[in-house]
């Protein structure tokens, strides 16, 4: 098998995970958790989102969180930014890496962002240009790559049109999202077979949700295709509003367990991940849904 020797894990729990929780954690709890994540060996943590509090009240304290965390110089601290106003706040919070987001599906983009794809792109270009002027790198999220809750399967050509435009605007990396967890390994392989002819895979990350229990299988397939960067959320925090009750992002602790068992390096310390997961369990007052935490909690 042509597996890489090392993989980069981008932790999205403080943003993608907490935004789907019913409880709104105190600011200090978020800061404490991010500080503990910073001690695990992670090199990239997405700490919050600068979306209007009306839409994501769970992350309404984005600036306070960004300013309150203890910065490890070896870690990139990122945040999701939807528009120029959000960028101003992100720059105030001294975020290292700006993430912009949109959907490859027209209907999902309208539902999620309240704009068409053609109307969203100019907004993102202003954010990307502004971030570059502020000396920041920019990452792009493209959602519904493997399936849309409204339109079903999304054509690869449509996904590539969106990715091409974002790359043309100057982003450094695209994270391709299986937003509702419908991808299969065969679909992932087919997509990446085409993507590798178009893009440098070092600029591609994959963002799998585990709604149907397929996330690790899809990661394994992506590894075989040469992808070396994956998003994940500690304990499997997160979810999808289109699949109520379903599990969320692929769990960082489960992913690290698999990779380390395969002899693939990540630089992340499993025992410190568990410590950070236990802290979040205490904050949420419920078990985290990952397999690793289920085993730990049963001991």
TrEMBL record:
GO biological process, one term: L-leucine catabolic process
Recorded coiled-coil stretches: none
Top-level taxon in the UniProt lineage: Bacteria
Entry annotated with the keyword Transmembrane helix: no
Example of a GO MF term: hydroxymethylglutaryl-CoA lyase activity
Domain (Pyruvate carboxyltransferase) ranges: 7-274
InterPro entries: Aldolase_TIM (IPR013785), HMGL (IPR043594), PYR_CT (IPR000891)
Family: Belongs to the HMG-CoA lyase family.
Protein name per its UniProtKB record: Hydroxymethylglutaryl-CoA lyase
């Amino acid at each position: 098998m042509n597996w890489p020797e090392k993989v980069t894990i981008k932790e999205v729990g403080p943003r993608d995970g907490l935004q789907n929780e019913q409880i709104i954690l105190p600011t200090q709890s978020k800061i404490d958790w991010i500080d503990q994540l910073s001690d695990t060996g992670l090199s990239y943590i997405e700490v919050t989102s600068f979306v209007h509090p009306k839409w994501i009240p769970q992350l309404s304290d984005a600036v306070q969180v960004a300013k309150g965390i203890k910065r490890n110089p070896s870690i990139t601290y990122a945040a999701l930014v939807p528009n120029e106003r959000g960028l101003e706040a992100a720059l105030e919070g001294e975020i290292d890496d700006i993430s912009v987001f949109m959907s490859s599906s027209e209907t999902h983009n309208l539902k999620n962002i309240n704009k068409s794809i053609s109307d969203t792109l100019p907004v993102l270009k202003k954010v990307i240009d502004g971030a570059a002027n502020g000396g920041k790198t920019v990452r792009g999220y493209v959602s519904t790559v493997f399936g849309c809750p409204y339109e079903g399967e999304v054509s690869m050509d449509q996904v590539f049109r969106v990715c091409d435009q974002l790359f043309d605007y100057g982003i450094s990396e695209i994270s391709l999202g299986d937003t509702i967890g419908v991808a299969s390994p065969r679909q992932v392989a087919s997509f990446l077979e085409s993507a590798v002819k178009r893009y440098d895979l070092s600029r591609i990350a994959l963002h799998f949700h585990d709604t149907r229990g397929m996330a690790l299988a899809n990661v394994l397939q992506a590894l075989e295709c040469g992808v070396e960067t994956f998003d994940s959320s500690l304990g499997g925090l997160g979810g999808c509003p289109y699949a109520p009750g379903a599990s969320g992002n692929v769990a960082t602790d489960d992913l690290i367990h698999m990779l380390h068992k395969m002899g693939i390096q990540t630089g992340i310390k499993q025992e410190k991940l568990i410590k950070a997961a236990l802290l979040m369990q205490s904050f949420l007052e419920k078990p985290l849904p990952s397999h690793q935490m289920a085993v730990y909690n049963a001991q």
